Request: fold
Amino acid sequence: MFTYSLSGLEITASADVPAEVEESETTARSAVYQVLASFFGPVDTEHYDRASRGGWAEEIEKAATLLPYAIDTGPEGLSTEMTLEEYAAERARVFSDPSEEDHLLREATYASEPDAVIPQVTREYDYFGLSTSTSGSRPPDHLVTECDFMQYLCFREAATSSDRLRASYRRAQREFLDRHLGTWASLVAVSVSQRSPKDPFMTGVERLASFVRADLAYVTNLLAA
Reply:
């Protein structure tokens, strides 16, 4: 059985959604978004422990077991021999600027009209009864938040027995990838590579870009069938 686990969004409207559903190709997609959201979250001892023992590779491989398309889930580059302090400092160096934490993990960084991004993604979340965390610790256009949204849409698709709703969730996924996450995931990898990052951060953004690209193609093909 599979259940979603949001870290960047909160449910604000009641919805007739089961707590868990049978594992399937669709929940596998949700699971990969879930792992990616965790990977790009803040460093704590649990996050570091996964990196130091190769746990991130294990989680991605497990999540991707039922994916309907192939992605790279190899262990290379997803572990580290850095200390916790070195690991946290490297994450900050790679993704942040002096003036903004996680600068390279925000959609607005790559947008031609950055001020328009947050209102746009917020409307998408609101429509599906979601909002950003009440703590305000993570912006709506953060990579974690956008992965959370895709995770939730995939789960909702897996949970419904209605063909009409299933198609609706797929359209929402395609549109969000077309307008948002799919337009800038590859740019994260380019920007991060210019900072000569140590692994697992470079490998992480490469896996993100590859997965999002494959997932957009998959959903687009489903809707065209």
In short: DSSP finds eight helices and two strands in the chain. The beta strands are 9-11, 130-132. The chain has one domain: 9-224.
